[in-house]
Fold this protein.
Amino acid sequence: MKQLARLAFALLICMATSAHALEVGQKAPDFALQGSDGKTYRLADFAGKQGFVLAWFPKAFTPGCTAELGSLRDGADAIAAYDASVFMVSLDPPDKNADFAKSQDARHVLLSDADGSVAAAYGVVSSGDLFPDRWTFYVDKDGVVREIDRSVSTGSAGADIARKLGELGFPKK
């Protein structure tokens, strides 16, 4: 019941904000989300220091999301060559994302947006949707959205993120 109430709240937020989809060149919306490692991650943590990637996924433990997380795990070394933090994000509660990350030996932190407010701000949910779109946002150290991948391939997501970081000129470590 608690999950249903959170989803209803997220849908109300989405209806109020869906007309303002986030676009390349805009400032990334603020966030403070709990990670699968128990830490809270904020947009302010990266401001002026490091770019980041938010790879939204629909639901933990589903076949496509498991494939995507496995691809990020397998591509972690290529991704780690760049000075950017990479996260997967869902509406799942923190404990479910922690279990999902552990089950797949994830090398990246999974963030939980259990109330859906950040998903609404990033435009990955629209009214009537129960799950976020599988979109990946690339944000530079100035907090500007540099790219939005709306055609994520679950099987090659890790390699695709590493390639895109290079194409966008994210600094190497």
